[in-house]
Specification:
This protein is of the alpha/beta class. It folds into three domains: 34 residues, no CATH class; 209 residues, 3-Layer(aba) Sandwich (Rossmann fold), CATH 3.40.50; 48 residues, no CATH class. It contains 13 helices and seven strands.
Length: 311
């Protein structure tokens, strides 16, 4: 398949075409993803998550420039929220990372969530596979930046960086959102602002209440991404975390969880597609529940019985 060969060769035009196929659920994408899957598993996948205004895009851009100085190829997936009214997305990362678009060692794709929850787009995992198979050394996944529903990123990446900023109440949000459990590394960005040390102290105290990290104690790195300060320290922390994952067996566990979630997601989607196709009148089923002639539980049982026929 020519497109598969071009993607595996790292050709950017083919990669952009492949991502578009995946985003619109084109049948060709299914075969393409199956063909390239054997070539995945070499990239380091890093998540960048946190509240709006924390400087995630600036941090991603600074980190990318740092990796490019090491001659590493970097793929960036930047997820933006979709308007519930128009269905559109601003895709502002195209503006904030404009200077990186001319670098042939960087591939940037902005993606809209299209209503998919968890701070990511539905196709994120598949696009990570495409970048991985295309030979990118680093894949950076920047989440939508909505704060409390970004936990899905931990099922996509190997190392998750949670970005906080002084003076925005991120510490309280972190407790409410459970973000403390998904952070492998904490970054206090815009650390030249007053209150940076206080934020570091508060995060350190909160981490003592979390038991999810096992033997790994998440480091806290202060950065000023707009001035490239603290980026080397962040890269060092990411490297140490990857080494920990590899030596502790945690990397295999995370990869296994990622595979499990992807299979389960595919099963749910395929089941629903099949259920709608075998249901005699899907709209009538919805109307019956809506007008109280049926209830959601019995309706679901009826669909299940019609879909899965046990001998």
């Amino acid at each position: 398949m020519p497109l598969t060969d071009d993607v595996l060769s790292g050709r950017y035009r083919a990669l952009a075409q492949a991502v578009s196929l995946v985003e619109r659920d084109d049948p060709e994408a299914t075969r393409l993803l199956a063909d390239i899957y054997q070539q995945t598993g070499n990239a380091r996948i890093i998540g960048i998550t946190g509240s709006p205004g924390a400087g995630k895009s600036t941090l991603v851009a600074s980190l990318t420039r740092h990796y490019r100085r090491q001659n590493k190829r970097v793929g960036i997936i930047a997820v933006d929220p979709t308007s519930p009214f128009t269905g559109g997305a601003i895709l502002g990362d195209r503006i904030r990372m404009a200077d990186l678009y001319t670098d042939r060692g960087v591939f940037i794709r902005s993606m809209a969530t299209r209503g998919f929850l968890g701070g990511l787009a539905k196709a994120t995992n598949d696009v990570v596979d495409l970048l991985d198979a295309a030979g990118f050394d680093i894949v950076l996944v920047e989440t939508v930046g909505v704060g409390q529903d970004e936990v899905e990123v931990i099922r996509t990446v190997q190392t998750n960086v949670v970005v906080l900023v002084p003076g925005m109440g991120d510490d309280i949000q972190a407790i409410k959102a459970g973000i403390m459990e998904i952070g492998d590394i904490f970054v206090v960005n815009k650390a030249d602002r007053p209150g940076a040390d206080k934020t570091v102290t508060e995060v350190t105290m909160m981490m003592s209440l979390v038991e999810e990290h096992g033997d790994w104690v998440p480091p806290i790195v202060k950065t000023v991404a707009s001035r490239n300060e603290g980026i080397e320290e962040l890269d060092s922390a990411i490297g140490k975390h990857f080494d920990y994952l590899a030596t502790s067996g945690e990397l295999d566990r995370r990869n296994r969880d990622r595979v499990r979630i992807r299979i389960e997601t595919q099963l749910k989607e395929k089941f629903m597609q099949h259920a709608r196709s075998v249901s005699e009148n899907w709209d009538q089923l919805l109307d019956d529940v809506l007008h109280k002639r049926n209830n959601p539980h019995d309706a679901a049982e009826a669909v299940l019985s019609a879909t899965i026929r046990v001998p």
